[in-house]
Amino acid sequence: MSVLWKGCLSQRIKKLDLQGMDPAIPIKKLFRLALYTSPVIAVLVIGAVSIVPYFILKGFDLILLAFALSIGSAVIFTFWSLNIGITSFLSKPGRRPVSRSFRYFLSYTLISSFVLCVRGIALQFVDEKAFLKIDAPDYTIYFTYVMRISIVFSTNTIILILQDLVLIRENKAVVEMENAQLKIKNIEALNQQLKQQIHPHFLFNALNTLKALIKINKADAEEYLVKLADYLRVSISLGQVDLVSLSEELKLCAGYLDMQKMRFGEALLHEVDIPANLGPDFCVPVFSLQVLIENAIKHNTFTREAPLHIRIRYCDGQLWVSNNLQKKQTTEPSIGFGLANLSERYRLLAGVEPFIEAGDTDFSVSIKVLKHANSHH
Fold it and tell me: What's the pTM value of the predicted model, to 2 decimals?
């Protein structure tokens, strides 16, 4: 299963926590948003509240307007940079988590200090009244200072809101990705558990057969033991994967049928009709054919005079396993893996289930052949 989902899990994850900022902040995304929104905020906030009324009163000057909006955009981008820096600084690994309120307080404090410092430096070189051509009493100038402070705070508030919206969206994406990872791990564990149910049941039957053969014919018992060892060697190597090529599954199935033939002799017949041109991209869940054959053997009675005939064939992307129906009057106690096990594994791996067709004289199960083992079906 891990192979199937490898492409999905290779996607980069950016984690964060708005209350206690996590180390990985989407810095590039925030700076890209800052670059796009700074001119817009400059026009909407600074322009609407300060620049436009000034030009209405003093007369329109295109060059001065463009200069003012450019400066405003640069200042707002600086606000963005300071906030991103604060967020990144507070989210460094090993740093104690801080609340959003503290982050906001630090942001307003740093932005206010920055504005006052820049204004103090600018006044050393520029006469504000002369530059803006304002002739007004001092109390009017002080009123404009209050208005500018409110503009700074409202602009910073907008920036903080936009930044937190990005962080919330990133946090949601991270949570969804982590939930998907947990779901995948649960599916992997369940699929592994379903595969592990097959071997104990098979070994139980194999050891009972070996015990019976030892009493009847020690030479056959020795041959059966060799075939069992070969089968287990192959099955162990395949037990770590979820899907195998159809050719590998048929080889595994042939080994299993050889052992069953030693157990039942001429009472068990089988034929395989699979095109030779099916390449390695045609896959099935590992042990799927074994489950279907074992299911047929378990639920039918058969003798040399009335043998069980198992047929395996391929048709239009489906693998059919059929047998003549000779139901046992009493069946062995079920340990609940059989067709239910195979159906659940198919549902986990491919989102489909085997198709069962039961008639009066025949019983067939069709399973989908999955193409491209490394893709998510």
Answer: 0.51
